[in-house]
Amino acid sequence: MTAFLDTLTERGYELTPAARLTDADSSVTFVNATITPYKRALARGGRIGSICHYQPCFRAHGEHPWLFAFGMVGLLADVESPDDLDRIAEDTHLATLAALGHPPADRLHILIDSRDTDLQESVGKAAARHGGVLHVLPDSTVGTRWTYGSDSPLTGRGITYYYRRPDVGCEPECRPDCRCPRWQPLSNLIVVHNGERRYAEVGFGTEVTAAIPYGPNPFSLPEIADRFAMATRAGLPDAAAADAVNLFRAVTMLVEDGARLSGKGPGSVVRKFVLRLLDLLDGTLGVEGGEQLLTRFGATRQLFDVLRAERQRRESAMADNLRAALFLLDRNPHTTDADLRSTYGVSEGQARRLRQTRLRPPRLKGGDTVTVVSPSWRGGEVFPKRVVRGAADLSARTGLTVVTSSVKPGLCPESRTARAEEFNRAVRDPGTQGILWMIGGLNACELLPLIDYEAFGARPKVLCGYSDATVLHHALYARTGATTFYGPALLSQFAENGGTPELTVGSFAELTMQGWTGRFPTASEVIEEFVDWADDSRPRDAVPAPPRKVLRPGLAQGPLLAGCVPSALQLLGTPWLPDYQGHVLAFEFTDDNGYGPGQAARDLWQLRHAGLLDGVEGLVLGRPRLWSDDQREQLERILLDVCHGTAFPIVTEFEFGHTDPVLTLPTGVPVQLDNTTLTLLEPAVR
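Predicted structure:
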C-alpha cells in the first residue's frame, strides 16, 4: 500500500484523506477507493486534478469467498488529452509494480477490450517501457464496462491488471481470462466518461496484494485464516465459513464507522450484510452458537446490539411480508413460490402454508346457523313480519338455520355498545357459522373501535351485507385480510314479497355454500318499483334490465373490493381504510334521500383526490336504482372526467348493491374483468 501511494505522490499526485464508509450517496452500493468523495463533482463535469489515497471499503462480487471488506488504494485524475492518458497509464503501471514488491515484470498481465484502441496504445507504451504482457481480447470475454448507479451520468470502460503466479496449475500458455488458480486479479484502470469530460480511476486491493505470498485466495492471510478455521470448527461449511468471516469484517467496519441500517442507499447494503450474517449463523449454529462464534471472532458489544436489533426488526418485517405475500396471492393466484421467496423472503414452507391457510371462511352447509345482526339501523324491530318472512324464505331455499340476534339485556338497543356487543357475540359464537346483516343504515361507523377484529381474523365466518355494511367489510379486510361478502341483507332482499329473486338467492348460495367460481351471471330483469314496507301486500313488478355498459374497455385482474361509495368515504383518514391499490373495485351508490349524479360526482371526486383510485386495476359500477336515462348519462360523463389520466377499464350497470336482484361479491378474492364480463378466479370459501 505504502509503495503504491509513495510512487504516485513522487509523480505529482496529491494524497487526500480517506472518505468515511458512510459518506457514499444513495446511488452507491459499495464504497469505492477513489470515486466516492468526488462522485458528485465528476457527475457535474468538474475538474479533479490528480489525487490518490487509501480507503477502507466493502463490495460484494458474488464469488466465494465474497470480498465484502478490504482496503484499497487508488488514484483519480482528469484526462484532457492523449498525453494525459499516456501519463496516467505509466503512473499506474509503475505504482502497481511497486506494490507487488518488484517481482519479475512479466508476471504483470493486462486484459484490454479490443474496441478500446486508445487504452491499448497508452497501456501498451507503459508495458513496453517497464515490462508486462498485454492480452487484447474481444469484449465478450473481458469485463470492461462499468456503471455508477442508475441515476448517474457516469459510465466507465477500462482494463484489468492480473498477477501471474508461477507453477500453479493450468497450461503455461493460458491467459488471465482462463480464471484458473494461476491468475490473481490486482486492479482496474477505468476511463470514466461524463459527456465530453473524461477521468481516469484506479482501484487496487491491498489485501489482494498481501495475499500473493500466501496464495491467490485472500483467506490465506493469517488473521482471516484463523477466523475461517474457527467457523469451520463451529460447524459452518467452508463456503458459509468464508462468507461469515467476510461479513463479520464488513459489518464490524461499518458499525464502527457509524453506518445506519436502512432500506435505501448504502444503508440497504449494510442491512443485507447483517441479514446474511444472521442467516449463516442462526440457520446453522442457532442464535446462541452464532453469538459464541462471534465472541471468538472478537465482536464488540456495539456489534451484538446491532445484530440483535436487526433480528427483532426482521421478525416484525417477516410478519408484514407474509401479509403482503397473501395479498399478492389474492391478486395473482398463479404467483410462483420462487417469486414469493424472492419478493418477500418467505420460505418454501411458508409459501405452502400461505396457499393452504388464506383467510377464506369455511363454506356454509345445510343446517348451519346464520345469525342476523343489526350493526346499523334496527329495522327488524319496525318490520317484524318481514323478518319472519325473510328468515323463512332463506331457510327454505338454502337449508340454513336462520336466527335473529337480540341485544344483551340491560343495554340500550340503539347504543353503539349494544350493537357492537351483538355483532361481536355472533363473531365469537362457535355455534354461528354465518352472519347476515338485517339491513343497512347510517351509523355502523360508530362501531369501528369496538369490533373484535382479532376474533374474526382467527376464525373468519361468512359475513354478508351491503350499503352501510361497507364500513365493517372494509375495516375487517384492512385489519385481517379475511374475505367477507358484499351481498343481500335479510330485510331488504330475502324478505321480498313473492320470494327472493332467483339470481339473488342463487348467487348467495353458490358463493357461500358451494365454492363457486366462474363468470358472474347477468340479470334479465330488474325490480325498480318502490313499495312501502308498511303495506307490501303484493310482489313488486319487474322490468327489463338495462345492459351492462363498457365506458372504458380493457382487461384487469386483482382481488375484488366491493362497497358503497358514501359509506366507504367514512373511512378516509382512519386506520380502518384498506389499501385500494391493485384491486378491482366494485362500487355502487345509495338510493337514500334523492342521491343522484350530483352527490355521486362529489363522492367520486373525493375518492380521486384522496388517491384511492391511484393504482387500482379496474372499476365496476353498480346499477343505480330509479335513475333516469339522463341521470345515467350524467354519471358516465362524471366517471370519465373523474378517472381522466388513469388507464383502468370501467364498466357500469352491474347487478349488486342498491338494486334487485343482486349478486353476492366476495372481498379480497381474485377476479378478472374483461369488458362486461367479471369472472371469479378462486372459491371465496374453503
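Summary: Residues 265-297 form the longest helix (33 residues).
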